[in-house]
Each structure stands twice: as C-alpha cells, then as structure tokens.
Amino acid sequence: MNTHELLIILGMAAVTFGIRYSFFVLGDRVAFPAWVRRALHYVPVAVLTALIVPMVLLPDGEHWQLTWRNAWLVGAIASGLMAWKRLPLLAAIGGSMAVYFLWRVVAA
Amino acid sequence: MMLGAAPFGMIFGTLAAPSGLSAAGALGMSAIVFAGSSQFIALSLITGKASLVVIMLTTLVVNLRHALYSASLLPHVAGLSQGWRAMLAFWLTDETFAVVLQRYGTEDGAPHKHWYQLGSSLSMYMNWFLWTSTGVVLGQTVPQLQHLGLEFAMAATFTGIVVPLLRTRPMLGAALVAAAVALLCRNLPYKLGLMLATFAGVAAGMTLEGRKEAP
C-alpha cells in the first residue's frame, strides 16, 4: 500500500465517520433542512448513472462504441432490463454478466 | 442481510487489483471505511486516476444519507456516553440502520438495546471484511480473473440498482441530465466531471419534482 492509497483510505474513513457521528454529537441543536432530504433522494441515481454511462458507451475511455458489437453496452442493457422486470439484483448481475461474456465471444 | 452483502464484499475484493488498489488497500478500506457503495465508487475513481479531493467529496455526497440515519437514531442513543455513540456511529450502515430501527421501535422497555445494535453492527462488519478478504484471495490465486472483464460486474451492479428507480419523471430526468453532463465533462481532470454530473442530476430531479408539485 503506497502513501496515496493510504491517504485515500484515511480521507474516506474520516468523511464517512464524520457523517455518521455528526448527529450523535450535535444532538438536537441542528436539523436537516427539508431540501437536503429531497436532494439526497436523487444522489444515488445521479452518481451511479454518471459513472455507468461513459463506462458503457466508451469502454476504452476514448472512443465511442455505439454498435451492437459493444459487449459493455449489450450487457448493461441486459442488466437494466432484468432489473426493470423486478428480478432480484443478484439475478440481474449474474444474468447480465453471462450476456456480457457470451457477447464478447460472439461479437469478437 | 449478511448473505446479501457477501457477493458484494467478494466482488469488491476481486475487483480491487484490476482497479489498481492493492490487497492491503482493499482490506484497509473495508476495515476502516466500511461503506460498501462508496467503496465501489472509489474503485472506479481510482481506476480513473481521480484526485484525493474528488474521492473524498464523492464519498461525502454518497454517504450523506448516513447523517439522516444518525439523526433518526439520535433519540435512542441520547442516554449513552460519547464513547458508545462514536462506536455505534463508526459501524452505522444501511443494513444496521434497517435492523436496529425495527428493534428500537418495539416498545418492550428493554434497557440494553444498544447492545443489540452493537451486536448487529459487529456481525455486519466481520461479514464484510471476511468476504472482502475472500475476494482478494480469489483475485490473487486466479489471476486470469483479471483479464476476464470482471470490471463489467461493476457496471452490471450499478445499472441493476439504477434502472428500477427510474419509474418517476424526476428520477428519469436526474439520470438523463447526469448522463449527459458526465459524457460532456468526461475529459475534465481528476474525474471532476463526476461531481458536476451528480450536482446537475440532483438539481434536475429537484426542479422536475418542484414543477410537479406546483399548482
């Protein structure tokens, strides 16, 4: 483990613990504004979408791959469809990974 | 819930090496950060050579929901010492919150419910660490795994989490705006684009929600 990694881990730990402990220390003296609650509601969707979409559309990080040969794209669509049909998350992950591996063989 | 966390702990451990996080780093993260979703996101940020500040800010935004948990558990820990509170806070996760809220909710007057929370926290903690280790070992003993394209597991997981949430217009709007900004800003240094996209997506969701509520 190098210094950079150590700093990342310590930084993340400090932030996470700070968040979890904040209200236990401050007690009732502070209240969560209603708009923060509303905003938090959208955080998972915004962060995760922002991570996935570039990953899937430009798997190498540089070139657009909007073709049926793109196993990342096909796999992600499969995962999305299965999750949309209310399959359990693990089933969607397992199923779409199978599609992904199969696609890499077929489209290669 | 311990069973539910198992595969994710293992996937995290296995993905660490291909993402450029050492085995010690992966174990350390599970041991002292102990926050599954932000750990996964950190992996993809590390791959993308994000700066420390961006990783910390993203962790802040992603884990901010835990502040809501600690706010709602406050009445139940109000009688405890700061030492106890700090300990319970360190181990406060989505799973523990769900379990203990139920336990605190039953009005049976049992005096030692914080021991219940501690017990639940510790089992989740050991469980997470154990499965991360399993994943790390698996990744090291079967190095071919790295070339299989396991990175896709992350995309599959995130997609599976996001898509079922997109059943309302504000959520869909948040996702579309976040995606567009992420694509436009993908070449910004240190993965700053992720932060911008997140804020833009959240703002879009809130705007659409406000419009829906307006008379």
Q: How would you describe the overall organization of this protein?
A:
The complex is a heterodimer of chains A (108) and B (215). The longest helix of chain A has 24 residues, at 3-26. Chain A has 4 helices and no strands. Chain A has helices spanning 3-26, 34-57, 71-84, 89-107. Chain A is an all-alpha fold. The model of chain A has no long low-confidence stretch (mean pLDDT 87). The radius of gyration of chain A is 20 Å and the shape is elongated. Chain A has 2 domains: 1-31; 41-107, no CATH class. In chain A, helix 3 (71-84) runs antiparallel to helix 4. The relative contact order of chain A is 0.06. Chain B has a domain at 67-124. In chain B, 44% of the residues are buried. The termini of chain B are far apart. Chain B is built from 11 helices and no strands. With 215 residues, chain B is mostly helical. Helices cover 77% and strands 0% of the residues of chain B.
Q: Tell me the series of helices and strands of chain B, N- to C-terminal.
A: HHHHHHHHHHH
Tell me the number of structural domains of chain A.
2
The beta-strand count of chain B equals 0
Low-confidence parts of chain A lasting 5 or more residues at pLDDT below 50?
A: none
Give the amount of beta strand of chain A, in percent.
under 5%
Class derived from helix and strand content of chain A = mainly alpha
Largest contact between protein chains? A-B, 70 and 85 residues
Mean pLDDT of chain A: 87
In whole angstroms, the N-to-C terminal distance of chain B is 42 Å
Helix count, DSSP H or I runs of 4 or more residues of chain A: 4
Notable characteristics:
heterodimer, A: 108 residues, mainly alpha, 2 domains, 75% helix, B: 215 residues, globular
